Amino acid sequence: MTQTITVIRGDGIGPEIMDATLHVLDAMNLGLRYEDADAGLVALEKHGELLPATTLESIQRNRIALKSPLATPVGGGFSSINVELRRKFDLYANVRPATSFPNTRSRFSDGVDLITIRENTEGSYISEGQEVSADGETAVSITRITRKGSDRIVRYAFELARRTGRRKVTIVHKANILKSTSGLFLKIAREVAAEYPDIEANEMIVDNCCMQLVMRPEQFDIIVTTNLFGDIISDLCAGLVGGLGLAPGANIGKDVAIFEAVHGTAPDIAGQGKANPCALLLGAAQMLDHLGKPDEATRLREAIVATLAAGDSLTPDLGGSGNTMAFARAIAARL
């Protein structure tokens, strides 16, 4: 069965890592078809806007998108194209796995295998009520937490744990200080957790969670938390396993899902073939899981791990002297 996905090549190193990723996916003979769509600076140059209506229509039509990093000019349009996409398609669940990989520059060579699930549409990132006083001395912004948003993200975490055989969900909060917003999230999380007696649930204040992640990351399985805390924790977790070059992300909604590399556009190395394609490749593996192809997702992850272990054509950030496409070819050969 043929599946069409919207492909957003992005800015900076985006086109390079997308070409590498599609090369690997093509080697797997999955019946995927690609519909190119523009966003970011390339879209601004071609269409006069950062996120054209044709791109939104493509994502809506195909319901699946694979996205490279995007740059957003300072001071123009909305603050983040990613935030705009999440709002437009109600992509409420941000799913960020962090797994130990061989032959990487990380503190933990093994033992890290966790998923951060971040509420993606409310909290501190709603951009409502933002204002600075006339004298420039005071800034205000609204943080909004809702029962609906909290319930569905925590429920998503427990359902994912049940579906994938994970045994523990850690609810991360700051309800000791933020008694209204974080307090509501924690209250609702406890209610949802009670419906899943087969999954262990524990609670952790966010600052303690960060310390525990650095000291003993093996104690975590799934972390679920609010938008701002999840943003910070997921990058911290990427640092445990070798950096953002190994960090994929999925943005899941009821009708649409967007899969991505979560790192930036790295304009300083764009066009030089130095970019590590692993994050987007791992995002593609998440996409295959979402498409009901878990065996193919496992094949892809195993080929990435085998290539890393062999040190075959590794990119400079991984300590090798290979280039982006050579690394992709090495992975494809193992498939």
TrEMBL record:
Domain annotation Isopropylmalate dehydrogenase-like: ranges: 4-331
EC nos: 1.1.1.41
Oxidoreductase keyword on record: yes
GO MF annotations, alphabetized: isocitrate dehydrogenase (NAD+) activity; magnesium ion binding; NAD binding
Pfam families: Iso_dh
EC category: oxidoreductase
SMART domains given in the database record: Iso_dh
PANTHER family for this protein: DECARBOXYLATING DEHYDROGENASES-ISOCITRATE, ISOPROPYLMALATE, TARTRATE, ISOCITRATE DEHYDROGENASE [NAD] SUBUNIT ALPHA, MITOCHONDRIAL
Protein name: Isocitrate dehydrogenase
Species annotation: Luteimonas yindakuii
